[in-house]
Specification:
heterodimer, A: mainly beta, seven-stranded mixed sheet, 0% helix, globular, B: mainly beta, four-stranded antiparallel sheet
Chain lengths: 107, 118
Amino acid sequence: EIVLTQSPDFQSVTPKEKVTITCRASQSIGSSLHWYQQKPDQSPRLLIKYASQSISGVPSRFSGSGSGTDFTLTIDSLEAEDAATYYCHQSSSLPYTFGQGTKLDIK
Amino acid sequence: QVQLQESGPGLVKPSETLSLTCTVPGASITSYSWSWIRQSPGKGLEWIGHLSNSGSTNYNPSVKSRVIISVDTSKNQFSLQLSSVTAADTAVYYCAGSNAAARPFDHWGQGTLVTVSS
């Protein structure tokens, strides 16, 4: 099973700040890494697919990069509505797995 | 946007079988790969298994001996059965869809909380 480790687990940030969340895979997964946003009492929402591909309807301040084992989700100019938990997910091999999540708190 | 709706009992007794259904109105159920994903209270996400567009199933080894995912094309539904449940199976269960197996989950249901308790 591929283990995804996110960092940090929690971050308190101010609006307009730039945020970087990392996801490290226990073995190479190519670009089969996707990012989701989950707000309280909501289901996850796909933000970025295949490491860096944008999703229609997702604000352009969200971007992704990386390949192999190291991946990054970047939020440029954070907004209050971005308060949520962010998860990475790999679809390279079964069983599909998720990172433990990174909770963003807006100050 | 594909809409998904989970349904099923919110309370299941230990050792019994958890059964959930996901209805997909307005979309061809044979055109997507369908997964079940769960989230224990205050915890992260765990993929349970999927039914691919080709009709094959794959399950997480953590539940493989206890799980069946099946489809009813006449009702545009797919289902989850998880047997011999314990308190550790208490979670919010999501159904999710992707364009094919090994793809990101583009579409999610709203989730349904299932509590295992006597």
